Amino acid sequence: MTQTTGPDVHRGAPGGEPLLAATGLYAGYLPGVDILNGCDLVLHPGELVGIIGPNGAGKSTLLKALFGLVPIRQGTVTLGGEEITNERADKLVRRGVGFVPQTNNVFPSLSIEENLQMGIFQDAKRFTERFEFVTDIFPALGERRRQRAGSLSGGERQMVAMARALMMDPSVLLLDEPSAGLSPVRQDEAFLRTRKINKAGVSIVIVEQNARRCLQICDRAYVLDQGRNAYSGPGRELMHDPKVIQLYLGTLATDVEQAAEPGA
Ligand SMILES: Nc1ncnc2c1ncn2[C@@H]1O[C@H](COP(=O)(O)OP(=O)(O)OP(=O)(O)O)[C@@H](O)[C@H]1O
To answer: 71, 63, 65, 84: which is closest to 19 by C-alpha?
Structure first.
């Protein structure tokens, strides 16, 4: 049973102190209108945690609230045990939180290299070291460092945006729908890229519309509905949970899974 009730909200999470923890968050854009209605999330060191749910559930709002872009009216956020609720985004970047927005995530008139410089302007002396790290993960960015970001494809821009967020050596990366607007093949690449960053030691919270693919790559996931936790658990477990399939994944998820299983 994966329904989240009370202490079961972080089902499947490893023990120990979480790296990032949000507790009982109420947040919204307009006075008196809450989009988040008491949702919780924890991210443990090394984890890749997904947030899925229907359109308008508040997935992106949760990410923005964690990054100080939407005011939190009630509840707390901690990073490494220290409270960071409503801390400004630039301070969060200094404290090791990176954020990759869904759209407008590169400076189109700047080159790839200049975009990466913008990512580390708060600690410019580390540019060379960090440039080497990110181009090791994404060699294409090193090879094309002089190319204007505006001339890149959607998938390549997404890669630049992720790399820019990695320049400050974050311990936590918040990714807002990295597969949005990409063709199926490019979507797969975006998920593989996410996994690669995670394997390089960065803990990740990823919001995704492509719920099935998200659950496939995540250690754990939360299903949000109307700004509240509806279900949670290990990604692959949620994928096969009849309630989650019926309410949030549709029949396609089971069809595709069965087709992928030998002998099915
Ligand atoms: N800047 C804004 N000002 C006012 N309301 C907003 C703003 N951004 C989002 N909302 C509202 O907040 C609600 C949740 O939006 P949010 O983008 O967080 O949902 P989501 O779960 O990410 O949805 P989707 O999967 O469609 O991207 C929606 O009703 C939306 O209209």
So the answer is: 84
Q: Is residue 33 part of a domain?
A: no
Per-residue pLDDT at 186: 86
Tell me if 6 is assigned to some domain.
no
Q: What is the dihedral of CA 167, 80, 101, 13, to 10 degrees?
A: 120
Report which protein residue has its CA nearest ligand 1's atom 10. Answer: 29
**For the whole prediction, is pTM greater than 0.95?**
no
Quick: pLDDT tens for 216-241: 999 999 999 999 999 999 999 999 99
CATH number at residue 221: 3.40.50.300
The answer to whether residue 77 sits within a structural domain is no
Q: Tell me the C-alpha to C-alpha distance, in Å, between residue 234 and each of 51, 84, 130, 245.
A: 12, 27, 32, 14
Domains of the chain: total: 1
Q: Does 42 map to a domain?
A: no
CA of 129 to the centre of ligand 1 (A): 37
- Nearest residue by C-alpha to atom 28 in ligand 1: 56
- Say yes or no: CB of residue 64 within 6 Å of ligand 1: no
Going by alpha carbons, the residue nearest to atom 7 of ligand 1 is: 29
Give the lowest-confidence range in 52-56, 91-95, 197-201, 251-255: 251-255
Q: 227 CB under 6 A from ligand 1?
A: no
Give the residue, by CA position, lying nearest to ligand 1 atom 31.
Answer: 56
Neighbours of 75 (CB within 10 A): 17
What range does the domain containing 142 cover? 47-60+87-260
Give the CB-side neighbour count of residue 181, counting CA atoms within 13 A. 12
